[in-house]
C-alpha cells in the first residue's frame, strides 16, 4: 500500500509541475518559473528523503517480523510431539501486536509432519510452512497477503496426483467485477517441499480431470472463460470460450473457442459454437459469464 501511495504522490507531482507556461508573458512570469523550479527541487528532495525513511522503516519492520518467526520456530523446536498447536501475541518495539499461530501435524502426508506458522500484523498476513527434519525445521513455503484480501487457506489434492497441496484463497480489494483468486502450491514427490506459486482468477478445480476452469476478469456477460490442464509442475492452456461479436460490438448469438485470450499475439480461433459446452455450466461464476441476473 505504501508503494501505491508513493507512486500516486510521484504521479501527482509530475502532473502538477509538467505544465509549461505559455510563451506569452514570458518576462512577467520569469520569477514564478524560478520559484516553481525551486519548489520542485525541494519537493523532490523531500520525496527522496521520505522514501529513504520509509525504506529504512520497512527494513526494520521486516527484521522484527523475522525475529517473531524465528521465535515461533524456536518454540516449535521445544515441543516433544509432532502434533501440537499454540496461539500467542508477540509485541513489536513500536507497541503493535502480532498474532501468532503455530501448529504441527501430518497435514500433507502420513510420513512427514509439517509446521505452519501464521503471523497477522495490522492487515498483512504471513504464512510459513516448514518441513521437520532430523536437525529441526526447514522452510519450504512462504506466503504473504493483505489481510483484507485473504479469505482462507485449505489443503487438498488440487491437480489429481494423489498428493495434498496447499491453496490460499482471496478476493481482490479494488476494481470492478468478479475477482476471486487462488494461490496454489503443489506438494512435490519428495512429500516435503512445494512448487512455486500458481495464481488463478475465479478458478474451479477438477482434480479428477487434472483441469482448471474459470472466469476471466471482466464485466458480466462481457468476459471469457478459460480451461487449463496440469502438466507436472506446469500448466498448459487448453482453450478460451467467449461470445462472438460483430463489427458493431454486438453479440451474434454464437461463441468462439480459441487457443488463447482475445487480443493475444498468438490468438487463433479454433471453432465457432452455437451453445456453451456443458462442462463449463457447473463452474463457479458461470452466471457472471452469461450475464444473467446482473
Give a description of the structure.
This protein has 294 residues and is an alpha+beta fold. The protein has helices at residues 2-17, 30-77, 286-290, and strands spanning 84-91, 97-105, 114-120, 124-133, 136-146, 150-156, 165-171, 180-185, 198-201, 203-206, 211-215, 225-231, 234-245, 251-258, 269-273. It folds into two domains: 1-17 and 28-147, no CATH class; 150-294, no CATH class. Strand 4 (124-133) and strand 5 (136-146) form a beta hairpin. The chain contains three helices and 15 strands. Residues 1-40 have low confidence and may be disordered. The longest helix has 48 residues, at 30-77.
Fold topology:
Layout: H1 2-17, H2 30-77, E1 84-91, E2 97-105, E3 114-120, E4 124-133, E5 136-146, E6 150-156, E7 165-171, E8 180-185, E9 198-201, E10 203-206, E11 211-215, E12 225-231, E13 234-245, E14 251-258, E15 269-273, H3 286-290
Antiparallel strand pairs: 1-2, 2-3, 3-4, 4-5, 6-7, 7-8, 8-9, 10-11, 11-12, 12-13, 13-14, 14-15
Q: Could you provide a short overview of the structure?
A:
The protein is an alpha+beta fold.
Total domain modules: 2
Estimated helix fraction: 10-25%
* Uncertain residue ranges: 1-40
Question: Distance between the terminal alpha carbons, to the nearest Å?
Answer: 31 Å
Radius of gyration: 26 Å
Amino acid at each position: 500500500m505504501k508503494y501505491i501511495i508513493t507512486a500516486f504522490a510521484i504521479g501527482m507531482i509530475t502532473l502538477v509541475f509538467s505544465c509549461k507556461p505559455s510563451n506569452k508573458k514570458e518576462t512577467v512570469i520569469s520569477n514564478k518559473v524560478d520559484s516553481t523550479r525551486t519548489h520542485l527541487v525541494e519537493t523532490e528532495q523531500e520525496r527522496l528523503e521520505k522514501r529513504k525513511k520509509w525504506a529504512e522503516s520497512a527494513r526494520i519492520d521486516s527484521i522484527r517480523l523475522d525475529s517473531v518467526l524465528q521465535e515461533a520456530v524456536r518454540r516449535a523446536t521445544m515441543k516433544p510431539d509432532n502434533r501440537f498447536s499454540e496461539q500467542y501475541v508477540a509485541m513489536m518495539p513500536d507497541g503493535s501486536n502480532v498474532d501468532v499461530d503455530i501448529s504441527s501435524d501430518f497435514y500433507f502426508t502420513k510420513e512427514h509432519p509439517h509446521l505452519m506458522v501464521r503471523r497477522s500484523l495490522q492487515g498483512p498476513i504471513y504464512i510459513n510452512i516448514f518441513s521437520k527434519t532430523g536437525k529441526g525445521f526447514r522452510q519450504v513455503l512462504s506466503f504473504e497477503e493483505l489481510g483484507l484480501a485473504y479469505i482462507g487457506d485449505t489443503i487438498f489434492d488440487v491437480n489429481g496426483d494423489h498428493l495434498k497441496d496447499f491453496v490460499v484463497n482471496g478476493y481482490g480489494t479494488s476494481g470492478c467485477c468478479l475477482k476471486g483468486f487462488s494461490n496454489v502450491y503443489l506438494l512435490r514427490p519428495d512429500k516435503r517441499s512445494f512448487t512455486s506459486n500458481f495464481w488463478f482468477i475465479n478458478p474451479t478445480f477438477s482434480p479428477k480431470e487434472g483441469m482448471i476452469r474459470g472466469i476471466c476478469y471482466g464485466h458480466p456477460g462481457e468476459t471469457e472463460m478459460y480451461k487449463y490442464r496440469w502438466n507436472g509442475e506446469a500448466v498448459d492452456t487448453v482453450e478460451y470460450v467467449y461470445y462472438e461479436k460483430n463489427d458493431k460490438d454486438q453479440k451474434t448469438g454464437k461463441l468462439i473457442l480459441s487457443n488463447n485470450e482475445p487480443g493475444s499475439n498468438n490468438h487463433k480461433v479454433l471453432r465457432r459454437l452455437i451453445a456453451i459446452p456443458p462442462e463449463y455450466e457447473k463452474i463457479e461464476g458461470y452466471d457472471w459469464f452469461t450475464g444473467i441476473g446482473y
